Every structure is written in C-alpha cells, then in structure tokens.
C-alpha cells in the first residue's frame, strides 16, 4: 500500500469513556508515548457524543501525526475529516465507504477468523485486514478466536495485517512473529496502571522482532 502512515506498530483503540475531557487526556498520554494509529471506538456513547469525541480527538491526532480511524461509522469519519473508518460485518459495505471517502482513506475490515473475508476485503479495496480475537479479550469476552496461522496465510494478500483481541505486551511477540504489522489494543493500554509504559512495552515487541530478523543491525 502506498500510504503516508506507518505500516507497523501499535494501533490504540479508545475505551468506552463518556467523559470527553478525560478521554482526550488519556489519548494524549498514549500518543505521546508513541502509539502510531488511533481508532475512536465508544460503544457507550450516543451519536451526538460520538461526534463530539471524534472531533475532539482529531486535532490531537494531527499534532502527533497519527491517523484517526472512526469505528463503525464511515459517514461520521467522512463528515469530520478523519483519516479512515473501521468496518465490521454489521457496519455497511466497504465498497460504499471507499467510494465516498476516496482512495487515500484508511478503511479497515474485520475478518475475524476467516481468510475468505480477508480475500474479499482485499479485492474490495480494504487498506488493512484485521483478525481476532487471538486471546481472551476483557473488552469482548465472546469474540470468535483466531490463530496466528491466519496471519501467516494472509501475507499473500499484501495488505497490512492487524491483530486484535486480548493482546498484552507478554503475548504480542508471537503475533508479530507470525506477521502482524499492527497490534490493535484497548484494555492492555487504557486499563494498564501506567498506559505510557504499556505503549512502550508493545513497541518493544517490534524492535525485538526486527533484531531477530536483522541480528547485525
Ligand atoms: C482494528 C479492529 N479490528 C477489529 C475490530 C472489531 O470490529 P467489529 O467486529 O465491527 O466490532 P466492534 O469494534 O464494532 O465492536 C475493530 N473495531 N478494530
Ligand atoms: C473490538 C474487538 N474486536 C475484536 C475482534 O476479534 O474482532 S476483539 C476486540 C476487543 C479488543 O479489546 P482488548 O484489546 O481489550 O481485548
Ligand atoms: Mg463494528
């Protein structure tokens, strides 16, 4: 993908926080610590609050050079000038989002535990494919479970591969080793006692994978 955005790293996803000022402060901490992408996701917010919060996060993301992806609602993403949208199986047609948002928008697709969904999303113009849940997720306890082999298998699609679901700094290495380009995390970052330290711990998983690939650097 020819994209101005980093293609590896930590993809932080916001928790269900209905206090906008507090959410903004929490996100600022995480972006200062080095998270490369941000998704605004808030299942506890009504449409008015979602718009308010997404708008509040946009200047922070801009300041840190981090793309803002809006979960579920590509129309909201387009209205506020966000960088993209993340779509799951109940979130509308990827083709319609792509047509409305244009070639440069980051449009991600949830593929759960299914390679066929990833192949279809790639053919329809997804910017990245997301698989999960790889581990038991405190945020989504009933999520379907995916295996690291799916990350390996989907290398052939030549799109950034996002891993999600119960990822901690301790279990993340296995996913990076299997080919995850971006680690998408909610609780492991935002519920950590020290979110900035958690961000750094996730990022170190990529450094370690690289030094194993290129031991003389
Ligand atoms: C990066 C990323 N991957 C997967 C999801 C899950 O999307 P979806 O299945 O639509 O579920 P909700 O997030 O809407 O509950 C995601 N949001 N981000
Ligand atoms: C939003 C979401 N989607 C998933 C999927 O498998 O598609 S798992 C998940 C929750 C991710 O939160 P945490 O990092 O706290 O486990
Ligand atoms: Mg969704």
UniProtKB/TrEMBL annotation:
**What are the GO cellular component annotations?**
cytoplasm
The record ties this protein, via SUPFAM superfamilies, to: Thiamin phosphate synthase
CDD domains, per database record = TMP_TenI
* Binding-site residues for 4-amino-2-methyl-5-(diphosphooxymethyl)pyrimidine, renumbered to this chain: 39-43, 71, 110, 140
| UniProt family annotation | Belongs to the thiamine-phosphate synthase family.
Membrane-crossing ranges are none
What is the protein name for this chain? Thiamine-phosphate synthase
- InterPro entries to which the protein is assigned, alphabetical: Aldolase_TIM, ThiamineP_synth_sf, ThiamineP_synth_TenI, TMP_synthase
Q: What EC number(s) is this enzyme filed under?
A: 2.5.1.3
HAMAP family, alphabetized: TMP_synthase
Q: Which reaction does it catalyse?
A: 4-methyl-5-(2-phosphooxyethyl)-thiazole + 4-amino-2-methyl-5-(diphosphooxymethyl)pyrimidine + H(+) = thiamine phosphate + diphosphate; 2-[(2R,5Z)-2-carboxy-4-methylthiazol-5(2H)-ylidene]ethyl phosphate + 4-amino-2-methyl-5-(diphosphooxymethyl)pyrimidine + 2 H(+) = thiamine phosphate + CO2 + diphosphate; 2-(2-carboxy-4-methylthiazol-5-yl)ethyl phosphate + 4-amino-2-methyl-5-(diphosphooxymethyl)pyrimidine + 2 H(+) = thiamine phosphate + CO2 + diphosphate
Pfam families given in the database record: TMP-TENI (PF02581)
Q: Which organism is it from?
A: Lysobacter capsici AZ78
Instruction: State which gene encodes it.
Output: thiE
Residues reported to bind 2-[(2R,5Z)-2-carboxy-4-methylthiazol-5(2H)-ylidene]ethyl phosphate: 137-139, 166, 186-187
Say which domain of life the source belongs to: Bacteria
What does the UniProt record say this protein does? Answer: Condenses 4-methyl-5-(beta-hydroxyethyl)thiazole monophosphate (THZ-P) and 2-methyl-4-amino-5-hydroxymethyl pyrimidine pyrophosphate (HMP-PP) to form thiamine monophosphate (TMP).
Q: Which GO terms describe its molecular function?
A: magnesium ion binding; thiamine-phosphate diphosphorylase activity
């Amino acid at each position: 993908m020819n994209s101005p955005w980093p293609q590896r790293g930590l993809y932080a996803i916001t928790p269900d926080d209905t206090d906008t000022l507090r959410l903004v402060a929490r996100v600022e901490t995480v972006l200062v610590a080095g998270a490369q992408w941000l998704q605004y996701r808030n299942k506890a917010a009504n449409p008015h609050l979602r718009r308010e919060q997404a708008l509040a996060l946009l200047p922070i993301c801009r300041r840190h050079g981090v793309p803002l992806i809006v979960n579920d609602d590509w129309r909201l993403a387009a209205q506020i000038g966000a960088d993209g949208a993340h779509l799951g199986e109940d979130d509308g047609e990827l083709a319609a989002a792509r047509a409305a948002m244009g070639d440069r928008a980051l449009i991600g697709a949830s593929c759960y535990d299914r390679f066929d969904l990833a192949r279809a999303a790639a053919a329809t113009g997804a910017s990245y494919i997301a698989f999960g849940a790889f581990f038991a997720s405190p945020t989504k306890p009933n999520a379907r479970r995916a295996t690291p082999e799916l990350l390996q298998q989907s290398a052939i699609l030549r799109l950034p591969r996002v891993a999600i679901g119960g990822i901690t700094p301790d279990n993340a290495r296995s996913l990076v080793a299997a080919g995850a380009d971006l680690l998408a995390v909610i609780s492991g970052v935002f519920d950590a006692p020290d979110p900035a330290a958690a961000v750094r711990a996730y990022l170190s998983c990529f450094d370690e994978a690289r030094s194993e690939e290129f031991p003389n650097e």
